[in-house]
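Progress report, Aim 2. The chain analyzed during this reporting quarter is listed below.
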Amino acid sequence: MEMRTVYDPIYEKLKAPMIDFGGWRVASHITSTDQEYMMIRNSVGFAEYDFQSCFGVCGPDSFDFIQTLIVNDLGKISPGGTLYSSILDDQANLIDDVIIFWMKEDRFIIHGGIAREASRKWIAEKSEGRKVWITELSNTFLSIQGPKSINVLEKVVDVAHLEHNRFLQVDFEGVPTTIARVGFSGELGYEVHFGPEYALGMWEKFTKYCAEFGGGPFGLMAAFPIAVDKGFLFGADFYKGGSPLEYGLGWSVAFEKTFFHGRDEMLRRKEVGLRTKLVGIEADISAPAIASGLKLTYNGEVVGETTTGWVSPLLKRNIGRGWVNIKFAEPGTDLQVVGGSGPKSVKVQSTYRFFDPKSERVRADPRVMLEKA
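Predicted structure tokens for the chain:
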């Protein structure tokens, strides 16, 4: 059964091309993917992601429960903070990658991706016997991304002092709203959360305010090239047999915690050595874009598979990602691509974070950006 978000009537009015994404009917684009990509990079754009899962966790055991559920250390943040992490099973297979919102005291929100059913089942199962209550939340949100995102928000509320990975609860022209300084674009960005009864009105507000800075709504497809540029993982990047260690997310794993699901298996892998690794790959700019799901070979031997790619109009590079046998993960290694209409060869790169690898743009001081406006 096709699922629709609360914003579906808007897409129909805009005559936006629609696509299926994990069973959800979502907008591919509003104008064009390339236009929306450059709009986010140069100005500001907003989109909804209501197909993502959202679970509320409350109760006296909430902190300890979430500590066992995620690989990162919840103790790194405090109420009003957010934390990126992964939820794994005991074999270190990814169930979902999530952002934890520490609302207050013993109340949290687990904001995940499209693995809603798997997450719901795992969270419910592992919460049994604990003093916690799990609720699937109906809140909606708009993600507003780009260097001018602060200019848009400042027309209504003061968030210029909001630090990266923190959030505020404010009144946005009569709408009870949570504004978090997080996002996927690699630019300054925010998520604006509110009740679904305000959704259509908030869309209208953001359409109006973004237009003043040359921005507007964008569709799901603009998120994919942005993620390739920036090195944010999704979909096939989380390949079977991998874990945060193989995915290049080891920085998010807090092995100092005495227990979390998947810890023992990842410690074992560290001890014996990783067998595979997700790497950045690049093809000649004149070749077709790197497609996903194509075999990577070395002297005729299959050594991996492409996961995603595109030709970046901003970076002027034909880039992507793929997993490879660890022996072939050395930067500079030349691999052949088998099948499809993509490039015939690619070269392994030193990183898959092609755009702003130090995240200087996403961590920029909004107050400085306002002064430059």
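The first strand starts at residue 3 and ends at 4. The CA atoms of residues 103 and 324 lie 40 Å apart. These observations will guide the mutagenesis work planned for the next reporting period.
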